[in-house]
Amino acid sequence: EPPPPAETVYIVIHDPPPAAGAAVAADDWVPDEARGDNPFARTRTWIGDYDCPQGTTEMTFRILQVQGDRIKAVFDFRHAASGASGKYLMRGRYDPETRTATFSPGAWLERPPNYVTVSMKGDLALDGSLFAGRIEHPECGAFRLRPAR
Length: 149
Description:
- The termini are far apart.
- This protein has one domain: Beta Barrel (Lipocalin).
- 0% of the residues lie in helices and 48% in strands.
- It has strands at 45-52, 55-67, 70-79, 84-95, 100-110, 119-124, 131-136, 142-147.
- An 8-stranded antiparallel barrel has the order 1-2-3-4-5-6-7-8.
- The chain is mainly beta.
- The chain is built from no helices and 8 strands.
- It is elongated.
- The model is unreliable at 12-26 and 29-35 (pLDDT under 50).
- A hairpin with a 6-residue loop joins strand 6 (119-124) and strand 7.
């Protein structure tokens, strides 16, 4: 016959707050977000630029709505040298496992002559300080966006 189950004992340990000058993690790194969380829900405006045939172009990427991994945004640009500016809607998805976001263009809100909408795909830095990747058009290159402060 098997022995009776052992009594379960629970031990609760209360950690006191660290003393002044106490050691902390060697790299002082604390995660800003739980894995799987959509960082675009917190950072709603990104500012930077992108490269296309007209040259480096200023860009503001505004997040309108986040539902789970789905994102609605506005791609707002201004090319300083020519004065051309415009904006259009985008829909995207964020993959928390790879920290990659992919956006497809939607309707124009303000369209300058001789411009087309473009898709974009990029990676989000672990600390959320940079969203960078590629404008998905054969004649374009990289984009670099940082959270607006």
